[in-house]
Amino acid sequence: VVFGTGSLAQDIFPWFAKNQKEIKAYTRSPERYQGLAEKQKNLQILPYREKVMGDNSGVLVIAAPMSNQAIEAQVDLESFQHVFDLRGDSHLTPLPFDHVVSLKSLFAKIENNRKVAHVIRKNATEAIHKQATLHGLSEKPRPFGWEDLCTYA
């Protein structure tokens, strides 16, 4: 379930399409985005009308500038396994739910992953350089001379 159909939501729709599950996107004016639903087969554009219920295994993505009160009136947060709150000010007024990932914490995780990847890449580069140097400095006795080199080629 995605709240919002703006540019942020449209940027993440292709990522959801990869797992072939149905995407329900709720918006104030669904008629504006019906062309988007026609392009993406598993996308359903719906209006904000009734309370949205999850199945305790789904994911809710909030990609619209909504207040906490509007979100809580529209959806039962407990009925979703994960909630991604991508509102820019979500860290100022967090939703009262344990499994909410805010935009700020998502960026912090991405930054942490970059740092870990940098350390891994640096260590791997050093290990490869060390092994290449050791291999280049190693000597193998060739008792039969040049003929032995030609047989290995």
Structural descriptors:
153 residues; alpha/beta; 6-stranded parallel β-sheet; 5 helices
Strand order of the largest sheet: 3-2-1-4-5-6
Backbone CA Rg = 26 Å
Low-confidence stretches: none
Q: Please, what is the average pLDDT?
A: 81
Total helical elements: 5
Largest sheet: 6 strands, parallel
The string of secondary-structure elements, in order, is EHEHEEHEEHH
Report, as a whole number of angstroms, the end-to-end distance: 61 Å
- Quaternary organisation of the protein chains: single chain
Give helix % range. 40-55%
Which range does the strand content fall in? 15-25%
What is the overall shape? Answer: elongated
Number of strands: 6
Secondary-structure-based class equals alpha/beta
Description:
- With 153 residues, this protein is α/β, with parallel strands linked by helices.
- Helix content is 43%, strand content 15%.
- The protein has helices spanning 7-17, 34-39, 68-74, 103-137, 146-152, and strands at residues 2-3, 23-27, 43-47, 59-62, 82-85, 100-102.
- A 6-stranded parallel β-sheet has the order 3-2-1-4-5-6.
- The longest helix is centred in the last third of the chain and has 35 residues, at 103-137.
- The chain is elongated, with a radius of gyration of 26 Å.
- The protein starts with a strand and ends with a helix.
- The model has no long low-confidence stretch (mean pLDDT 81).
